[in-house]
Please model this.
Amino acid sequence: MKTVRLATFGLATALQLLFCMQSAFAQDGIGLEGDSNPDDGTISATATQVVVHQTGGSGQGGQPISAVDTNWTPPACWHEPVASPRELEQAVNAIENGNLVPVNSRLQWGIDLMHEYYRDGADGNPENYNLDKQGEGMWWRAVRNPNREDELEAGDCDQQLMFWADDGAEPDVPTAITPEMLAEYAYDSVKVPDTEIEMQPADDRLKVNLPTWIWQEPAAFDEVRVRAELPGTGLWAETTATPTSLRLDPGTEDAEVHPEGGECAIDEDGSVGERYRRGEPEAVPACGITYRRSSEAAGGSYGLKASITWEVDWTGSGGTGGDLPDGVFETTYDVTVEEIQTVVR
Model:
């Protein structure tokens, strides 16, 4: 790979480049002015043109899930098609109006280097923007996962500058976007509802040795689907997260969870456990906790953790599909547990 020196630009352009490297890709989507405005064609310095849509859950108001497998993470970056030959030529022509052209996820170039690389064919690139292959392929560029763009790994794709790939040909880079990558990006975009549980007695009246019943009404938990697609390419993937269990952690070793292990199954109707049954003081809750010591010595409250496990799978274009790591979302409740007061006469 050819070494690029800022001195090629001159001082003013170098300063502008450094500014753009910090501010580029601050918003989603991509803007290609294209043939509609040939005098001001620009390639927008944005993260990705992948479109993401969620159904179920809480949409953008929800919370992301974390993979149970801590060794797995969604991709921090990838390469995707960004411009046709004519669009790239128009973007370079627009540089004379003060624009720069992004050639990877953080680097933008002025007119001298754009001419050298993409008009004159430096470093093995096709000459004249590959205009003679208009409609037969696209220029590809590194982009960053908008959810992870500031992570160190997000720069791994930037070793490759913008490159050409014919339609139907698999680009010779391991990070070229695939349906599985789209599925993993969709996983990273899943928003699930907060884990809100019902308790009896209420959380401000929990008593030592008195079982606390925990439940959720039917349909409280339902599957969440996120579809990610790359317009104009036929590439798409849909990730489905299905809630499977509610796990309880009482926040102290001086407690007993029901059932043993603290994992309450989520029924097919989306409910968890069962409501408190009055008149049955000896009954054991299907899902719940029995605290054995007051929370006074623990600072006044225990941190009861309720976490939902989500089973995740995906389907995608070309008959692709498979499983992804289970995800989990956890909510902590501060609960006060008191001794049962007795009156001696």
User: Anything to note?
Assistant: Confidence is low (pLDDT under 50) at residues 1-40. The helical segments are 11-23, 85-93, 111-119, 179-189.
